[in-house]
Amino acid sequence: MRARAAGDFRGRLESTILTPLTQSSRGYYALVLFLLAVVGWGFYAFLVQLRYGLRSTGMGDVVMWGMYLVNFVFFIGISHAGTLISAILRVTHAGWRTPVTRMAELITVVAISIGALMPIIDLGRPDRVWHIVIFGRFQSPLLWDIVSITSYLTGSLIYLYLPLIPDMALMRDRLAREASSLKYKIYSLLAVGWRNTPEQRHRLEKAIGIMAVTIIPIAISVHTVVSYVFSMTMRPGWDSTVFGIYFVIGAIFSGIASIIIVMAIFRKIYHLEEYITERHFRNLSYLLLTSLFLYLYLTFGEYLTVGYKMKVEEKHLLELLMLGKSAFWFWFFVLGGLVLPAILIMFRRGRTITRIVIASILINIAMWIKRFLVLVPSLQVPLMPFEFGAYTPTWVEWSITAAAFAAFILIFAIFAKIFPIISIWEVAEENELEVSPVVRETVERGLPVPERR
How far apart are the C-alpha atoms of 374 and 54, rounded to whole Å? Predict the structure, then answer.
């Protein structure tokens, strides 16, 4: 009976996950066309910026960084979703993670790719990137950024690809007749001759384990280096020794919120209620609440120490944030991004998944605003007795920002039509371990599982 139940589960799983790969609704094509239109408009705005230079933006001599760098920090931050959900939980053998690991790993790759484009756009002239590489000084955090982000993207692509291999082989064998010849060739190429032999499985699991351990310190180093771009300057609000851990915790915080939102969307659209359950949202909400309290603690410590010393420049910054023209956004971040989500997660009234998803949406909106508050107000504070700087984003910056988020969603939509959004083989194996106590005990004792016929 147990073997039969496991077989029925795998059959349902394959049918649910593989069906969207061969069938597309009109709504899907309408969404893709809309996203392409937004990306196209953003590209037009970028061409305008290339023609007229950075004067087409709201940046100037005083506030020389704006929305592009805000987007950069935000996207690099949410890329930590893959590291936390997939790598750390894989290392700790948390079996419940299996239905959401691929979404988390994809968030990592897509977010890094889009985030890495933002500083290039911010340069005004993309050809200057090469100048940073060949003329850059090793003492500069900007050069460290290039090295760390490139390493993180390379490692994340490998880490996304390795668990895809068994599913590529499955699609090569199951969708040979239904898929186009191009898709079949792609599946065959990416499957790299996978036949599910014990030797192949051993090598694959070993490679995934090595990448899981390797990617964790790389991810931590990436957002630490991003923080150094700010904290190694003497600007008020940036001159801090805790920015490294502050940025890393903030990245994990927004990363967990991102994976919860993505889970909810695909669960609804692809009818994955049997595989992504309330348990997954509840477990992630515990991690989200933990990171929320850590981030709240660091935020309180940051402003307490600044306010206690009350240097002239930092006094101006605090007034600007808490009482001045940035006060609305600052208090929205505090109340809407920290206090209200904590209440939604802790007080269990109403639908659990709905509460957690609303909290995650509020957190990500607030964390984007927080990145804006970290960057722009500090640049507005005068270092000499002159008037404050001013910054108002133009339509060019808003258009490119909208295109960045549209491209993020578009890549997810295209990926989900080519590859399984859930790791079929991992979910099936975890279900088998739950169904069969004998297999579970064998795995826990570190013994090899007999090959399935």
Answer: 21
Q: Mention every residue, 6+ apart, whose C-beta is less than 8 A from residue 130.
A: none
* Whole-Å CA distances, 157 to 82, 91, 234, 294: 11, 18, 36, 29
CA distance 114 to 282: 29
- Determine phi and psi for 350, rounding to 5 degrees: 85, -170
Rounded Cα distance, 169 and 360, in Å: 35
Kindly report the CA angle at 343 between 338 and 349, in degrees rounded to 5?
150
- In the prediction, which pLDDT does 46 show? 94
DSSP 54-65: GGGSS--SSS--
In the prediction, which pLDDT does 388 show? 72
Model-level pTM? Answer: 0.88
Whole-angstrom Cα Rg for the chain: 24
pLDDT in tens, 101-142: 888 889 999 999 999 899 889 888 887 777 777 777 777 777
Phi-psi region of 413 (alpha: psi -120 to 50; beta: other; left: phi over 0): alpha
Residue 345: Cβ-neighbour burial (10 angstroms; 0-12, 13-18, 19+): buried
The domain ranges of the chain are: 14-382+394-422
Alpha helices in 162-197 (DSSP H): 165-174, 181-191
Which residues of the chain fall below pLDDT 70?
A: 1-7, 176-180, 385-387, 434-453
Opening angle at CA 100, ends 150 and 104, nearest 5: 20
Residue from 295, 440, 316 nearest 380 by CA: 316
Q: Which of 222, 347, 360 is nearest to 285 (CA)?
A: 360
List all residues 6 or more positions away from 342 whose beta carbon is below 8 Å from its beta carbon: 289, 292, 293, 296
Output the six-digit token pair for 103.
Answer: 């979404």
H/E element, 394: none
| Residue of 62, 64, 73, 78 whose CA lies nearest to 122 | 64
Nearest to 122 by CA among 78, 165, 65: 65
CATH superfamily placement of domain 14-382+394-422: Formate dehydrogenase/DMSO reductase domain (1.20.1630.10)
The secondary structure of 79-122 as a DSSP string is THHHIIIIIIHHHTT-GGGTTTHHHHHHHHHHHHHHHHHHHHHH
* Residue 237: Cβ within 10 Å count: 25
Give me the amino acid identity at 240.
S
Contacts of 48 (CB under 8 A, 6+ apart): 56, 396
